[in-house]
Prior knowledge:
27% helix
Amino acid sequence: MKTSILTFLLLFSCCLLRAQCPVGNVFLTSQNEVNAFHANWPQCDTIHGDLFIGKANENSNIASVVALSRIKHIDGSLYIWNNTNLIRLSGLHNLQQTGKH
């Protein structure tokens, strides 16, 4: 009985840790979405897919990525598109690795 309870707790804690970040690709196309990322995923340090900042076909209003400062790993690629207001990438200063780690 103790073994099955321990197994359940280990599996549950694994799922909770993974749930701290969105699964799959993350698309942030506006400043509001960048700011909301931190509010929605305050403990997230890994993107489990690609991270897209901006819009592929038009300019976005993203001027700051400071709200992404907890991100350390991106399992996929980082794409930054059409952000004429984005001057510094200071919110990505903790990024250590892109690609599967």
